[in-house]
Amino acid sequence: MSDAVKSITRNRKAYHDYFVDDELEAGLVLLGSEVKSLRQGKVNLTDAYARFDKGELYLVNAHISPYENATHINHEPERVRKLLMHKRELRKLSNKANIAGFTLIPLALYFKGSTVKCKIGVCRGKKLFDKREDLRKRDAAREMARNHARNHRR
């Protein structure tokens, strides 16, 4: 039986600012009000990153808005959240992240069945000319597709 995957959000800025070398899936330790807020799609991963602390991986600066219908006991929007992975995956990720110039960026949040998963990318930062080159390639591909559609419309 396969679990249904329902996307919550993607970190589109990460693909613009970084080269993604590797992607891994991690579970997320959340409170009930955070899960309710995620179901409403009220999350922002723009400035978020993952870091190692005492051998464990944590998600930092991920903003999950407070749930409006919660009681007076609600969660902090930008609290540090623990990411869950197997030890061998953590070691592999730690070795890659310790190489100079690499950072761990959350690429997406999604529901897999009833659990919340986070796709973590091992990323290298892009320079300004790399970003311009990507824009040029995207514009050229869009223009080619437009011309192709125009020529084959008849």
CATH superfamily: Small protein B
Q: What kind of oligomer do you see?
A: single chain
Strand order in the largest sheet = 1-8-9-2-7-5-4
Terminal residue distance: 46 Å
Structural class estimated from helices and strands? alpha+beta
CATH architecture annotation name? Beta Barrel
N-to-C SSE string, H for helix and E for strand: EHEHEEEEEHEEH
Poorly predicted sequence stretches spanning 5 or more consecutive residues = none
Query: How big is the Rg?
Result: 19 Å
Largest sheet: 7 strands, antiparallel
Please name the CATH topology. Answer: Small Protein B, Chain: A
Average predicted confidence as pLDDT: 86
Helix count equals 4
Domain module tally: 1
GO molecular function, one term: RNA binding
Main location: cytoplasm
Family: Belongs to the SmpB family.
GO cellular component, one term: cytosol
